[in-house]
Amino acid sequence: MSETVVLVDYGSGNLHSAAKACERAVAQAGLAACVLVSNDPAMVAAADRVILPGVGAFADCLAGLAAIDGMTDALAQAALARARPFLGICVGMQLMASRSSEHG
Q1: If residue 51 lies in a helix (H) or strand (E), which one and from where to where?
Q2: Which are the contacts of 78, defined by CB distance < 8 A and separation ≥ 6?
């Protein structure tokens, strides 16, 4: 059975590089996983693993994430309620906090 790894596309981050790195890691490990890039909250909530990349200022990234209706709830559902493996890259990890001292 193939697992789904979803990289969240919210307009910020190095999606191409992160997706290629994940695909390479999956292939080298001989795993059966599908790596997808998506801005669909339903896909994020249902994912077996979630990666939230991020580049830039916290407030800008938070605004991009909040602009996608249902995305913050989907992340909470996947990472917290369902306890799915979650990787936040740079600002992506900071976005899981309730606040930041960096520009918002």
Answers
A1: strand 49-52
A2: 44, 45, 46, 47, 50, 84, 86
What is the full per-residue pLDDT of the chain (104 aa) written as tens digits?
Answer: 689 999 999 998 789 999 999 999 999 999 999 999 999 999 999 999 999 998 888 889 999 999 999 999 999 999 988 889 999 999 999 988 877 887 65
Give burial (CB, 10 Å; 0-12/13-18/19+) of 100: middle
> Which residue ranges form the domains of the chain, and what is each CATH number?
3-94 (3.40.50.880)
The edge-to-edge listing of strands for the beta sheet with 3-8 is 33-38, 3-8, 49-52, 86-88
In angstroms, the Cα distances linking 50 to 3, 71, 102 are 11, 12, 24
CB distance 7 to 51 below 8 Å = yes
